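Work Package 3 (structural annotation) set out to generate three-dimensional models for the target panel prioritized at the project kickoff. During this period the team completed the workflow that converts sequence records into discrete structure tokens, so that structures can be stored uniformly alongside our sequence database. As a representative example, we reproduce one entry of 251 residues exactly as it appears in the project archive.
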Amino acid sequence: MKENTLVIIIDFDNFFRKTIFDYNEKEFEYELKQLVDDVLINQNVNDLDYILIRLYSGWYQNEKLTKKASVLFQKIAIVDIFPIKISNKLINGKINVATSLHLLPDYTWTDTYHEKNGLSRIRINRELISEKCNENKQNCPIFILHNFTKKKTKFCSVEGCSYRQNDVFSSMVQKMVDTIIACDYIAFCDNENVNSIFLISDDVDHIPALVQGSIKINERKKLFVGIRNQLKLDYYQNILNNFNINTILLS
């Protein structure tokens, strides 16, 4: 790790407004450049020589790199945001796709994206259901879906159909990603060469790791959380301000 490093940890799917497939190269580069600009506003650049950006998501399904990860690697290869010139100073940097722990770079976590059969049971906000829907539950899609998701082994109600709920529905879920972020965050807090750490995410599941990391840092090191959801800003601030962790609203 280079001296005087700023680390930007990005919860990829939480931060980017579109999927990686929907960005062209210039749009993706602009998003990253805008993010770095937002971060640098809160930095003393005289104490900064290097920027490390790490992107976290479910990059592997079983032993294979996902298509999302493959496209991301292609786009990163042509992104040109470094060096950054600010206050007559050039700051170099690097973008990493985090497929391993920062302190264990030779071990790749290859099972971070799972296909899950069936849907979890959904609940209806009955206060918002119209009288017409309540009177016509047999044909209302809301009630049909609600009934079908009661159990993953629930059979289709159409006569002659033998499919169960978990035969026809599946979803993709991430595994271990939040834990990998937490481990890296705490490791960077312990690294003497790191001046500042920005975690970019609206996910409140990261809060315990943020607090744990803040316990041992020295006065020189600064911790930040960058979020896009205005509604979560007060919630973050009410907790994190007690631990000298700054919150910023991203553009």
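Residues 5-113+175-249 form a domain with the Rossmann fold fold (CATH 3.40.50).
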